[in-house]
Amino acid sequence: MGWGAALTFQMGLLFALMAIGLPVAFAFFGVNVVGAYFFMGGEAGLVQFTRNAATAVSSFTLTPIPFFLLMGEILFHTGVAFRAIEAIDRLISRVPGRLSLVSIVGGTIFASLSGSTVANTAMLGSVLLPEMLKRGYHPTIAMGPIMAVGGIAMLIPPSALAVLLGSLANISISKLLIAGIVPGVLMAVLFFGYIMIRCALNPALAPAYEVESLTMWRRWRPFLVNVVPLLLIFVVVVGSMIAGFATPTEAAALGSLASVAAAAAYRALTFATLRKALGETAKISAMILLIIAASVTFAQVLTFSGATDGFLKRMSAWNLSQFELILLMMLVLLVLGCVMDQVSMIMITLPFFLPLAETAGIDKLWLGVLILVSMEIGFTTPPFGLLLFVMKGIAPREITTHQIYRAVTPFILLEIVVLASLCVYQPLATWLPDVLLR
Predict the structure, then answer these.
(1) Predicted structure pTM score
(2) Domain ranges in the chain?
């Protein structure tokens, strides 16, 4: 069987299994079993497939994932994160689009503590969306910022998805985590500026209302008590890696301990909330590890079938420059983001992108950041962006899917501006880790 037929057969089977509703990990495993039998020597191939899957999930580099997930789950289930949002709400006053700006600032801060896009969006939506709609905010300016800032959680450390990508792509996890800070902050700044300008030009989008007059101390005290101590968790995670006395795994473990300590200090930690956080962490971690096993073996089956080598030779014949190759990869990811979840995007594209990048001499850290940003855009891209469904679930029934799409569109365009800037100017992605981890 030629490489083209082998590639068509495996990808066609994969999409067919996903189309009938089979979970992503099991769809990949189905393709892997069939591919291992036909391309890796029958029963011997199946035995090797099993060994490879076991080896894939036993890598020590994957251990930060459950710790990062646990950090966010503890802060979310104990309600500590909700206190932080209320404190930020008191701090911002008398500006156009006040509550929308609160969602941007609060969402960015929580993103640096949780690493979970879904938790970020769900928390902001449940706390701020009802209040914004009650105050007469237009649904587009109320929902758009919440969905947009929700995705930032996968860029700013701690990010479980960044650890997953770094492990699969053999990119330094410390560098990849730190490299996501600049794009994440840049997006938050653009979102903030866009809301202020748009609400200043059209005040009807976010009607002003009387805010309780507070003394300076009453305004800043909740922020100093409920937000600043939480930022120490971010300092513990990132600072320990920068200082060089903690690996990503050790930094993640320290972050989890800091989250538990913070929840206990606020007297919000109970046995029930801790059990809930641990249970949710175990569920998500098991799912991610299953997906990793499927991803690694999928790449190996593609290689044995000759599909990867044949595809690389065909691409090499095009004589694309580095920049053209990067643009082609990002275009593929943006299109896939419309119809596919982020983990599936990684699993399908990495077996092809990594050899192409190595052949063309593309910096793997730069490519890793570009992939993360592209996947972040995919979280909010219609029709199947995950955060669109999260918003539909927490929004009032009268909010239509079309309104949700309209609300997120301007922010998608701003995210694409950031992605384009990263493509054109590589130091935006690589400068910070090079400086801090030199």
Answers:
(1) 0.82
(2) 3-436
